Amino acid sequence: MAQDSVGLPSDFQFWMHKLSVWDQASTLETQQDTCLHLPQFQEFLRQLYEALKEMDSSAIIERFPTVGQLLAKTCWNPFILAYDESQKILIWCLCCLIKKDPQNSGESKLNSWTRGLLSHILSTFRFNIKEVDLFTQVLGYAPTDYYPGLLKNMVLSLVSELRENHLNGFNTQRRMAPERVRSLSRVCVPLVTLPDFEPLVEALLTYHGHEPQEVLWPEFCDAVNEAFLLKKISLPASAILCLWLRHLPSLENTMLHLFEKLISSERNFLRRIECFMKDSLLPAAACHPAIFRVVDEMFRYALLETDGALEVLATIQVFTRCFVEALEKENKQLKFAFKTYFPYASPSLVMVLLQHPKDIPRGLWHQALKHISEMLKEVVEDQTHGSYGGPFESWFLFVHFGGWADMAAEQLLTSEAEAEAPEALLWLLAFSCGPGAGHQQRAQTMVEVKAVLRCLTKLLRSPALSARDLQAAAGEGGQGAPRPPACQQLIRRLVLSFLLWAPGGHAIAREVITLMAQTDAIMHEIIGFLDQTLYRFILLLFCV
């Protein structure tokens, strides 16, 4: 290689003269001379690159003072850019001029000037360049035929370079320099939405070097994520996963975008929430524990900020269901233990909750619910598993799998279970509605709710139902001092379950809402809740 670079100074002057001649004339004779010398000029560029890559930008300018002029003239010659690998080699020669940490204004200007040339090469060529028109005319191609082919070849060349980490034919032992990857990602910022550049964008996102710090330009990641959210780019899920793993703000913005879609939509049915969720790619990406933990933390904050809003709870449950489906589909054999996803939860409890309630025979529902209740109670009240977090962590885990609470409410209303079973189910529901309540407060809630439950179970056997019957049943035990919030919420859940499962319950729901203004002070709170929440809940479950 040293021998190859010995004659560079003399060759340098020869090619500088040739480029000047080619740049000043556009005659047929000039074009023929250019095409005649293309193989030799490409070999010169190759030798120049081998010399430049071993020097920093300061040493390059000292040894080759006019290298910038030569490369600039080359960038504007369409014959050279279209020939074989010349364009690719030219790009890496330019990258050698970029100073990673410019120390003065001169080096900064050189960086800016070099990036401008790279941007010119990588962007769409101007159709009014006289030389290009002549070139395509000689070849018999129209610009509409020539430019797409040239752009496609350039993109494929860069993609190959990123994936193979070497230039075809040389530099086989040298990985692509991080500065070059970073420069390329910066140049691509305004180009990410162009379909022809999608392979290059994907190759950049999936590029893996051995650098301790991220090499991709942050604005590049922002641009790609914005294009993905606005459906202006089509990338495989693996590339989006790499984007979110490399750039946390992109993942956070995706979650915020999902929340915005849910908030802006007037009526969010469960099917629509599921479509939003799967379309976001979040459940599939969450199979990677790092993605799951970030998404789960954002759900946690949303739940706390909205005081457990129904829409947030429903979204968490839909996400969890889609996540579990994706996990089962992707991992025939789990790559990560479930504790990696739920580090603050009892592993045995997680395994039980991961079962889909409907996969359990109906005759075993009580047994499964009782087992879950006992495990949660042991963690929450007995405090024998302090390493699994406090009551909130157990509750947050439980609300991910909302089907179990729905099953418990249904069982309390529709089954004739033995005495101890309803106690376990009542505790489970009381905990789901009031995770911060103490042992005594939760016990008192269970006493009050049990009285309401007796009235509701009687109504289920009643031949005719009315809104006032429901009001009376829901008000049982509510006279006198106001009920604690957890008790009120549990009664509401039972009322909801009653209206969902009782014959004619849907009709009563509408009747109750229309009678809201006519109720007394005690019932106004419950009916007000039905107006705000029950109707939305019914929409979530039954509207299509």
Can you describe what's shown?
This is Fanconi anemia group C protein homolog. Its main location: nucleus. Keywords: Cytoplasm, DNA damage, DNA repair, Nucleus. Helix content is 70%, strand content 0%. The protein has 544 residues and is mainly α.
Q: How would you summarize the topology of this molecule?
A:
Elements: H1 2-6, H2 8-24, H3 28-52, H4 57-63, H5 67-75, H6 78-82, H7 86-96, H8 105-122, H9 130-139, H10 143-164, H11 178-187, H12 198-205, H13 218-229, H14 237-246, H15 248-264, H16 270-279, H17 282-285, H18 289-305, H19 310-330, H20 338-341, H21 347-353, H22 365-382, H23 391-400, H24 403-414, H25 420-433, H26 439-460, H27 467-474, H28 485-501, H29 505-514, H30 521-542
Rg of Cα set: 34 Å
Total domain count: 3
Query: How much strand content do the residues show?
Result: under 5%
The total beta strand count reads 0
Helix content: over 70%
Q: Please report the distance between the alpha carbons of the first and last residues.
A: 71 Å
pLDDT < 50 runs, ≥5 residues: 124-132, 166-174, 417-421, 516-544
Shape: elongated
Helical element count? 30
Q: Look at the structure and give the mean pLDDT.
A: 77
Taken in chain order, the helices and strands follow as HHHHHHHHHHHHHHHHHHHHHHHHHHHHHH
Structural class: mainly alpha
Give the biggest beta sheet.
none
